Amino acid sequence: IKYYANILTPFSAFVDKKIKEVLDLKIPIDIIATSHGVIWRDNPTQIVEKYLTWANDYQENQITILYDTMWDGTKRMAEAITKGIREIDKKVNVKLYNIAKTDKNDLITEIFKSRIILVGSPTIGGGILSGVAEILEMIKGMRFKNKKAASFGCYGWSGESIKVIKEHLEKSGFSVINDGIRALWNPDDESLEKCVEFGREIANTK
């Protein structure tokens, strides 16, 4: 799934079309031997069926929260949002990642699997942290479909980060749930409770 998510996602429409063309030929397939990768001998069409599934706006019951942080304020927001989601939905798989500490290809894979993603960054210089900007640029080229998103982050003065993230997500084809949530400086108990409530709202998004 990692290979498909990172390499083939932008070409899903072609993958779907070509697989169906091959299957319509009704040619018996005994083995699939790729030029660089696994050779499929036992039930070789299993990977074809997987590709067909992945090519059709794939998602699991997963919410992925991605963030970067300077003084742990945005991290604490992410953790509070996670708490709120889990309070409402015990079955959803919630995954929390610090962008600066996680392989970008792994992040793309988790986004591919998700029905909702939340992206967080503190405001810096009227914008967002470079690691967050990098993953948002990667997302833009993936042409994800059938996914929802929202933004969050801390700020000290002007607080543009949630708007910047929101605009990136919209341009990347995500259905943005709301305008996001932000907290002044390092979030206090009141701000964190608002983040928990934000998480509850996200959990109720269908």
TrEMBL record:
It holds the Pfam family Flavodoxin_1. Residues 63-203 form the Flavodoxin-like domain. GO terms for molecular function: FMN binding. Transmembrane segments: none annotated. PANTHER family: ANAEROBIC NITRIC OXIDE REDUCTASE FLAVORUBREDOXIN. This is Flavodoxin-like domain-containing protein. It comes from marine sediment metagenome.
